[in-house]
Predict the structure.
Amino acid sequence: MTYILKNIQGTVLAILVAIGLAGCASEEKIDVSCADYFSKMVSSDFTDLGDGLMKDSVTQLFWYRCPLGQNFENGKCVGKILDADFETIQGTVKNFRPATIRRADGLGNWRLPTESEYKKLMSVPCHSPGIDVSAFKNIDTETFYWSSDDSDRDSFACGTHIGENRSICKISKKASNPTLIVSEDPGISQPLASNG
């Protein structure tokens, strides 16, 4: 009987060691920067429509590739990022019209992303920053990005910290932060030519 118990203990120990080693191997696979990961992989769920627009094939949302304030030119985000208080950001988003996208009504139906939409962007198997860097070229990992979700209190708003993969709804609306922008219908009447 002692021999059987020792064999069971030895087998259990071997299984636990194998599981532990397998766990370490999978962590090494995941522990890669997004710059390295996406240099070898095709963009996660995004289709490049050109002129700074990316379409998420899962959510069907259109994302502008650069933070608000910048333009997408020759494959790069250029210009100064708008790092502003919540009200200024909201007003600027309402009037956002990429120079290269034409609509008859002049609008693009752009808005701030929700917390869950940012969360979807950050659902990639890499880090630093935890986002598809082939789709979004100029992400600051040291700050929060405004979202459209309002806090429980009037003087606060929500934001997502892409570098830390976390969201909070206790950011003073007077604080200065950048944002990405999204649209369900940016008013594309024909396919855009890719420039990037």
